[in-house]
């Protein structure tokens, strides 16, 4: 009788198979540590990509914020220029002779009183910032950045209730300190002084803001 040959295969349970698979994976990772790193974290290239994206997002946020700030300054500048224009026009109406600061009885020189145009207006009370000599007073008074006549009565006659004429200010609240030249100026949101220009001609009389340096902002007073 021919003998039977039995080949015995090891018998494994499910638990034993799982344990064996984990053991082999552990041995594989222990011999190939780079594989484990790839499985558990980001590569250097991936980290660089993430950092670059974060930088781009942050830059976009900053640019957006700066854009909002610039628009806000533009809006405030337009509003302030409109308010200063109102004050100048009210000053002109109150004068009774349609005179802006520096014109008519408010001329900085004494020529309006029959004196010399090199002498300061003798009817005016100049503040200490104007200087001591006539030339200094006239130059200070005529500075395009000087709004002092909107803040204080330059002659001191006040308001004539019967005639409805005179100085009936202050026409605007003073909010800034003296400028470098001692003028009683008004700074725009860019910290540049507003200027009054071309008052001798109704077509050119205007208020100017230097703004951020990208171009003057002009508001004509009588157009």
UniProtKB/TrEMBL annotation:
<keyword id="KW-0488">Methylation</keyword>
<keyword id="KW-1133">Transmembrane helix</keyword>
<keyword id="KW-0812">Transmembrane</keyword>
<feature type="transmembrane region" description="Helical">
    <location>
        <begin position="42"/>
        <end position="65"/>
    </location>
</feature>
<dbReference type="GO" id="GO:0015627">
    <property type="term" value="C:type II protein secretion system complex"/>
</dbReference>
<protein>
    <submittedName>
        <fullName>Prepilin-type N-terminal cleavage/methylation domain-containing protein</fullName>
    </submittedName>
</protein>
<dbReference type="GO" id="GO:0015628">
    <property type="term" value="P:protein secretion by the type II secretion system"/>
</dbReference>
<dbReference type="InterPro" id="IPR000983">
    <property type="entry name" value="Bac_GSPG_pilin"/>
</dbReference>
<dbReference type="Pfam" id="PF07963">
    <property type="entry name" value="N_methyl"/>
</dbReference>
<keyword id="KW-0472">Membrane</keyword>
<dbReference type="InterPro" id="IPR045584">
    <property type="entry name" value="Pilin-like"/>
</dbReference>
<dbReference type="InterPro" id="IPR012902">
    <property type="entry name" value="N_methyl_site"/>
</dbReference>
